[in-house]
Write a structure and sequence with these properties.
alpha+beta; four-stranded antiparallel β-sheet; five-stranded antiparallel β-sheet
């Protein structure tokens, strides 16, 4: 489904407290008998508490120890593992809408530590699934936000979706039953799939091992909990059993619908408002497809564009309407759901979140050695106003400080890619519809340069690799860090440019203090008149303009 035959996955991490840095974990060799202690790595408030005080990211020892492997693979981590040296790449979303009855207080292992162990031990996506699920079944799966998580796991040849959940309050360590319930489905080779937070796996064919895997209790637990009746005559569907047949949350439906609308407009799917009351096969709830063959093959640039989407041009366009303000800001930090005078205002959750801490586009290429084949295109902050740079994460030795340091509570001008991008994002709110056009031009300069030069970097790295793999890794490390540092420097210069151009809410280029025109100006002036009369209670005399 991709333009060049690579597999690709992308993710946005959308919570204000999430870390935005990259962490490099080197490969290691271990003596026989070495034990690995598993620590709890929560998503929320991992490095700092809500007041900015540093915390230990390994918040506590889980009590679980497992044998070390003789050799662990290097990998790079954001909130979760991004890519290891075998090009095994991961992304995570939360399973919203599932039964709260699945929570278990005795479970030991969150998806974070499970995915970290898989990243340092797996050569393929299938191996990663086996590592995650076997540990979760033995020691118990511990949810966060909800009792379940979705892990997208890819290698140069396959992409899998793993749904994994806790098993309810009665499970205890050592009881002899699995401490997790899970199902995994492969994305077909010529398909693209969209997985916002929410359950996506329906009917499971365990006779088709090329495309499905599941725990032994995937059906029996649903029967035991009363969520599926085998006498009903209906086929077993994991999504119907574990969500009680309910429609998924509107924020999930909107993003899934919009993703498919951008990837395969010919599907002409019903919009989220329409589909939430529709029925599908077997009288189940109507569901959007698990995956679809795109109308055209997808590129890295396409995924970047999708990540930046704010529902522009749709009936839910976030750059339109009163909450966008007179300059069309898509940000909705006040929320998307309001009750007013007994009625409801429902704004949409777009693909880009209000508090995205980073996005990644992982590109895995089977025709190149792993060191060269795996690229993570990384953008700190909100992608709409940030910039992507390529990191050959499978082959790099280290990552520049601009992408591995910094925190949410201290901005040092000229330092860190996150703050360079976040300043642009914050300042863009001043006059969004104007500033975003400058941002697009700047993004295109940086990203088009990267797209143009990557084939040459591939070629040079491959020539070096064929004679000395170590020199190839050194070359990739040097080039990636130089490119990233240069891009970050240019973005800081761009910050300065924006301040000068738009200070005082004027446009100061090419002339000084040109007044901007508001989009839909008549609407906004009428809103000002309404506010003046109804809130300020001002009724002005009908006199000539010269009075004012």
């Amino acid at each position: 489904a991709s333009v060049d035959g690579s597999t690709m996955i992308t993710i946005e991490q959308d919570t204000a407290s999430y870390p935005f840095h990259l962490i490099r974990w080197p490969a290691k060799d271990y003596e026989p008998g070495t034990v690995k202690r598993l620590y709890d790595w929560p998503q929320w408030m991992r490095h700092f508490d809500q007041y900015g005080n540093p915390t230990d990211p390994r918040h506590e020892f889980t009590g679980v120890e497992i044998p070390e492997v003789s050799h662990s693979y290097s990998y790079t981590m954001g909130l979760f593992p991004v890519m290891n040296e075998n090009q095994v790449s991961m992304a995570m979303s939360t399973l919203t809408g599932i039964h709260d009855a699945l929570w278990n207080d005795e479970a030991k292992l969150r998806i974070t530590i499970l995915s970290m162990v898989a990243a340092e031990r797996a050569k393929t996506a299938r191996e990663a699934i086996q590592i995650v699920t076997s540990l979760a079944e033995k020691y118990g799966f511990k949810g966060e936000y909800t009792p379940g998580k979705c892990l997208i796991i890819a290698d140069p040849n396959e992409i899998w979706l793993l749904h994994i959940m806790a098993v309810g309050p009665l499970w205890t360590p050592g009881c002899g039953k699995p401490g997790a319930v899970w199902a995994a489905q492969r994305v077909p080779d010529d398909h693209v799939a969209v997985f916002p937070n929410g359950f996506s796996i329906g009917e499971i064919d365990l006779d088709d091992s090329d495309n499905f895997m599941a725990s032994s209790n995937i059906k029996s637990l649903a029967i035991e909990m009363g969520w599926y009746d085998p006498k009903s005559g209906l086929p077993f569907s994991a999504v119907e059993a574990y969500t009680a047949g309910r429609a998924l949350p509107m924020g999930t439906l909107t993003r899934k619908w919009r993703g498919y609308q951008l990837i395969k407009p010919s599907l002409d799917l019903p919009n989220p408002d329409e589909m939430s009351t529709m029925k599908g096969p077997h009288a189940y709830q109507y569901r959007y497809p698990f995956s679809a063959k795109p109308d055209k093959k997808i590129s890295v640039a396409d995924l970047m564009k999708i990540n930046r989407d704010q529902l522009e041009g749709t009936y839910l366009d976030l750059t339109k309407g009163p909450l966008s303000g007179p300059f069309g800001s898509p940000t909705r930090t006040l929320g998307t759901f309001f009750k007013v005078d007994g009625d409801i205002v429902q704004e949409a959750r777009s693909i880009q979140g209000d508090v995205t801490q980073y996005t990644q586009v992982c590109q895995m290429r089977s025709w190149l050695p792993n060191d060269i084949g795996g690229i993570a295109w990384w953008a700190p902050g909100r992608p709409k106003t940030s910039f992507y740079v390529p990191f050959y994460l499978a082959g790099m030795n280290e990552i520049t400080d601009q992408y591995t340091t910094g925190n949410h509570f201290e901005m040092e001008w000229g330092k860190t890619a996150y703050w360079a991008a976040t300043f642009v994002n914050t300042f863009a709110e001043v006059m969004y519809c104007y500033i975003i056009e400058d941002v697009k031009k700047m993004q295109d300069k940086i990203e088009s340069e990267a797209f143009a030069i990557v084939p040459a970097i591939d070629k040079t790295a491959l020539e070096l690799y064929n004679s000395d793999p170590k020199k190839a890794r050194e070359f990739l490390t040097q080039w990636c860090n130089q490119f990233a540092d240069n891009a970050t420097k240019r973005y800081w210069e761009f910050d300065n440019h924006l301040i000068v151009k738009y200070h005082h809410k004027y446009i100061n280029e090419p002339e000084i203090a040109t007044k901007p025109k508001m989009p839909e100006e008549e609407y906004w002036i009428k809103q000002a008149l309404k506010y003046q009369k109804e809130v300020r209670k001002r009724v002005l005399p009908e006199v000539g303009e010269q009075l004012w």
